[in-house]
Amino acid sequence: MGNIIVAQSGGPTVAINASLAGVIEGALSSKYDTIYGSINGITGIIDDNIINLSEVVKSDSNFLKKLKVTPAMYLGSCRFKLPSVTSNDPIYNTLFQQFKKYDIEAFFYIGGNDSMDTVDKLSAYAKSIDSPIRFIGVPKTVDNDLCVTDHTPGFGSAAKYIATTTMEVIYDAKIYNTPSVTIIEVMGRDAGWLTAATSLARNNCCCGPDLIYLPEVPFDTEVFVNDLSKLLKEKTNIVVAVSEGIRDAKGEYISASTGQLDNFGHAQLSGAGKTLEYIVKDKLGVKVRSIEVNVLQRAAAHMSSLTDLQESVELGKHGVQFAEEGVTGAMVVLNRTSNAPYTVDYSHATISDIANEAKEVPQEWINDSHNWVTDEMLEYLKPLVIGEPELEYENGLPVYVTR
C-alpha cells in the first residue's frame, strides 16, 4: 500500500523520540508497508541518507520501549529552510523524486515552528503538482510557542527540569546569612513559557523564585532594582528568574546582541543574566551571581514528565491515523478538555495557520507588577509535569538507544 518516511528537525527535547516511537507504532498497525527514517531532517532525503526503521524495530524487540525514554533525536536534526514554493528551485523536484524512489505515501516531520514551515511548503508544492503524498507535522519544542495546540511535546519535561533546578538553586542560595541575589537566566527569546515554569518551585518545600520576568512585557531596570531593594529589607537571599529575551519599552534586548543571526533570521543573544548581574552589583552592592540554564533541559531525560512522553507518543500515532484518513498540510494538535481531572483530546489544524507564528504567554497570566505569574498560569503548568517514566539503568547510568 506504499510507504512512509519520518524525520526530526530543530532543537532536541526529552520527548521528540517518544513522538517518533508513536509514528512508528501507528504505522506498524496501519495500511502502510515500510517505515523509513531520514537522517538529519529534510537534508537526509536530499542526500539519500535514509534508514529502514521497519528493519530496526524487527531486529530489537525492546527498541521502541527504550526509544520512548531516550532524549535528543534518534534520527538527528538539521536547521534547513526550504526556499519559497514559487521560486522554481530544483530542490523540490529532487525531494519529490526521492519520495517516488521510496514509494512514499506520507511524510511526517517532527519539530517546531521552522519544521512546520517545511511541512507547509512541501504540502503546497504537492498540491501544485497534484501529488497525492500526505504531509503531516508532529509538534515539538521546549519553548511551547507553537500556535493552536494547547501545549507542545517537550515543554512539560523541560518545565519539570527547570522547576526542579530552580528549587535546588534556592536551597543552595539560602544557606548563608549574607545578603545575596541569584539570577537564573532561562531560554526564551520571544516567549516566556520556560521561565514561567520556575513558578512551580513555589510549593510546600520551597519558597520559589522571588521574582519572574518574561519577554512578553517591557522590562525596566530601575523597577527591577527597586523590586530587589524592597525584598532585601525583608529577606536575606533573593532568587530571580528572567527570560533571555527580556526587552525594554523600546523593544531592545536587555542582553547584548551578538550581531549575528541564525539560519532562520533569529537574533543570537548573549547574557541577559550576566547583564543584570553587573547592574545589581553596581546599584545594590550585594553578593550577586547569574546562572544560565541554557540547553540543559533539552535532553534531561532523568527529569522527564510521564505525561509529556505519553502525549508525545499519542501525537505520533494520531499523525499516522490522520494521514490514512487523507489529511495533509496539517499539524497534530492537543486540546485540553479539563484541568481537574486533567484530560486532553487530539485533532489536527491547518499548517499554514501555525508555521512561522509564535504563541506568547497571555498578558492576563502575568501579574500587574510584571514580576510574577498568575494562578491561571500555575493551573496550566501543573498537569504537564506529572509522572515519572521507568528508566533502565546500567552501572548507575540510564540506558538509551543509539544509532
Automatic annotation (TrEMBL):
Non-allosteric. Residues 3-299 form the Phosphofructokinase domain. The keyword Metal-binding applies. The record marks D114 as: Important for catalytic activity and substrate specificity. Its main location: cytoplasm. Its cofactor is Mg(2+). PANTHER family: ATP-DEPENDENT 6-PHOSPHOFRUCTOKINASE 1. This is Pyrophosphate--fructose 6-phosphate 1-phosphotransferase. The lineage of its organism: Bacteria, Bacillati, Bacillota, Clostridia, Lachnospirales.
